[in-house]
Specification:
It catalyses: O-phospho-L-tyrosyl-[protein] + H2O = L-tyrosyl-[protein] + phosphate. Its EC number is 3.1.3.48. This is Tyrosine-protein phosphatase non-receptor type. The protein has 366 residues and is of the alpha/beta class. The protein has one domain: Protein tyrosine phosphatase superfamily (Protein-Tyrosine Phosphatase, Chain A, Alpha-Beta Complex). It contains 9 helices and 12 strands. The strands form 3 sheets. The chain has an 8-stranded mixed sheet with strand order 1-2-10-3-9-8-7-6, sandwiched between helices. Helix 3 crosses helix 7. It starts with a helix and ends in a 7-residue tail after the last helix.
Length: 366
Amino acid sequence: MSIVKSWHYLMHEKYCHWDWVSLEMDDHSRVKLQNTDNDYINASLVVIEEAQRYYILTQGPLPNTCCHFWLMIWQQQTKAVVMLNRIVEKESVKCAQYWPTKEEEVMTFSETGFRVRLVSEDIKSYYTVHLLQLENINSGESRMISHFHYTTWPDFGVPESPASFLNFLFKVRESGSLSPEHGPAVVHCSAGIGRSGTFSLVDTCLVLMEKKDPFSVDIKKVLLDMRKYRMGLIQTPDQLRFSYMAVIEGAKFIMGDSTIQKRWKELSKEDQAPSSEQSPPHPAKITTEKYNGNSIVLENKDQMEKINTDLSTKVQDITDGNIENSSVRKRLREDRRANTAQKLQQMKQKLNETERKRKRPRLTDT
């Protein structure tokens, strides 16, 4: 889809007063509404076949797009919505109140013919789970939708700790909403790329680690593959670093630590009363670098190598902590260390080659 055509759709829907309207949508991955005059909605279907994960990443619904948001959920047979932003952040409205509250238990979207009813609400210290009934007014059919709302994740920032994030992620997983037998889960923040990308990347990498050798999971490659479906996923170096940290922490569960989920819950303090202003401080700005024309916001090469080294080392430590058969396991450790060292050397060579190309003087026309 061309930028001009994309802009035409945005103007038609009066999106132009929102900061993220310039996000270009690709026809091959954008979700298309059915049985409407205009099939456009700012949403992308991200497909990771190897992990059997399917997400719809979208921007937070606007006042005039809530009806289309629910239409998409109905048509895609979605079972869960994962919301990673608050309605208002730093005195700026990030999205519309598109689901009913206890004060207004029913919302009707007559333009697309849907009614949403609040069935239950479970409020934790940093997230809330709503059970919603989505009714098609024309047919009378209704479905139950789980709404997982992370309430303490700042825009362009990261959660307070991997433990609290993973506790939330596994709460979503336990509902079965991410399973391939259901329609794709809808994940959104304000623009549907930063926080939404972080959530999807960590979940996907942990699934891949469960399915195959954890050391073979290349987080950077997974991210770049996901960006083929929705550009700009992961907006800041801190979000990328946090993704690595969360994968490292999540690997403990994959490697057989049966008590780790209980520790995540304890560390997250989810049963405490939520604070009135639920937002950790914003991290300091870090310079970004370009990758194939897209701002991938990676660290400089030394920092990036350190992140990958730490990942391999910490996952190795987790694995070693769960090994009892010394002779066989020792050989496995040696093989893995050699494999890790080889991968790090290859990565270093690629980084050096990229650096040389970047410093190579460019020829200009005279």
